[in-house]
Amino acid sequence: MGVTESLDSTDDRPDAAMPRRAAVRTAKLASLPLGIAGRAVGGWGKRLTGQSAEEVNAALSAKAAEQLFEVLGTLKGGAMKFGQALSVFEAAVPDEMAEPYREALTKLQAAAPPMSARQTHRVLAEQLGRGWRQRFAEFSDVPAAAASIGQVHHAVWHDGREVAVKVQYPGADEALRSDLRQLQRFARLFQALAPGTEVKPLLAELADRMDEELDYRAEADNQREFAAAFAGDDQVLIPPVVASAPRVIVTEWVTGTPFAKIIADGTTEQRDRAGHLLAEFHYSSPARARLLHSDPHPGNFMLLEDGRLCVIDFGAVARLPEGAPPQLGAIMRLALEGRSTELLDALRDEGFVRPGTVLDAEDVQAYLAPLVAPLTRERFHFTRRWAQQQALRMGDTRGQDFRTGRSLNLPPNWLLIHRVTAGAVGILCQLDAELELRAIVEHWQPGFAAG
């Protein structure tokens, strides 16, 4: 685990690390959609005074993005987790709105106000015992990075190994439950922040996986399984786990270039390398580990100096004991080859079409064909423009694709795979990466190979 964004301020108030009172958190979350609506009304007034629509929209977007980061980043918990999940899809936001959201959402991928040293020490004593200091040769009280429900400290283990110590915020469980309940109430209003993304199912899934996220011991077990599956790999490094407790996890420290930095100012070579490694990791994990890393946002990936991908944060992991479903590969192949009637039959068999729903096979083919476009050629260039085109196409209420999409169903057993794959594609578009995705899918995805 490496440094993604430095944090050096501290606050010793009891609730500074994570505001817990339900009324306070609800009010903060409610201020987001209400604030956005209020600014939209104010914008009409500014237009009447002569300002152009572009000027007004730019100002509204900047203020909304600033508020988004301030509220979600301060609250952490489920609000922060939601912000991180949304951040993957910012590539699909139209250009005229994207820049302020891009900046605010990218910050959410790795930054949040830290808890105080006193609070950190208290959690370490509770989880590792009163003699916790004896386990470390050195321990930095200044957090190196922060995440949705915990923060990371740089330390030296008693045997001399550099380690990353992730400490869960006090009250994280309470706050996470409260946030996700409130965010679900505002799902429709938040939809505007992520065009083409279904916010309500995303929030429902985050709520379903909440207990897994909170249990660092389970996360440590997940990381150990991934590390064993990729041990000695020349493309992927999973930091070994050194010690764990329900609210503390210690792993070996890794220094690399965070994906967020590559997205911001990486070279073409870095972007393409990072994209290739991410796609290979995503598609190979079910076959190699029988697991799927299910928290795809740039804060969880780094590019190492030796060219390998480092993956961190295994709180959200899908278990696929049989590997990736071959039905997925078959559906991708049918869509790619334009076999519309067989495609619709396959979708019905898997529950993507509700019983009694009448759909035209050609409409379904037209809806899915652009999504498998990256597989139509040897190399595909993932861009923000391509992501925006897909979001606009599927979100255009006047178009046939919108009506087709609304008629399709996403079965619960497919939700996680769909969301993680969409998240990985979102990162590829943020990276502006060009890669040979088809070869990766042909090698790793069961059911896709022609024949």
Summarize the structure.
By secondary structure, this protein is an alpha+beta fold. Helix content is 53%, strand content 11%. One of its GO terms (molecular function) is ATP binding.
Structure description:
- Residues 107-325 form the ABC1 atypical kinase-like domain.
- GO terms for molecular function: ATP binding; kinase activity.
- Belongs to the protein kinase superfamily. ADCK protein kinase family.
- InterPro entries: ABC1_dom, ADCK3_dom, Atypical_kinase_ADCK, Kinase-like_dom_sf.
- Keywords: ATP-binding, Kinase, Nucleotide-binding, Transferase, Ubiquinone.
- It is a single chain.
- The chain is of the alpha+beta class.
- Among the domains are: 22-109 and 173-197, no CATH class; 117-172 and 212-252, 2-Layer Sandwich (Phosphorylase Kinase, domain 1).
- It has 19 helices and 14 strands.
- It has helices spanning 22-48, 53-75, 77-87, 95-108, 117-128, 172-185, 187-190, 199-208, 210-214, 216-229, 259-265, 268-288, 326-336, 340-349, 361-368, 384-395, 400-407, 412-431, 437-444, and strands spanning 136-139, 145-146, 150-157, 162-168, 236-237, 241-245, 248-252, 257-258, 291-293, 301-303, 309-311, 317-319, 380-381, 434-435.
- The strands form 4 sheets. Strands 1, 2, 3, 4, 6 and 7 form a 6-stranded antiparallel sheet that branches. It has a 4-stranded mixed sheet with strand order 5-11-10-8.
- A hairpin with a 5-residue loop joins strand 10 (301-303) and strand 11 (309-311).
- Helix 1 (22-48) packs antiparallel against helix 2.
- The longest helix is centred in the N-terminal third of the chain and has 27 residues, at 22-48.
- The protein is globular.
- It starts with 21 loop residues before the first helix and ends in a 7-residue tail after the last helix.
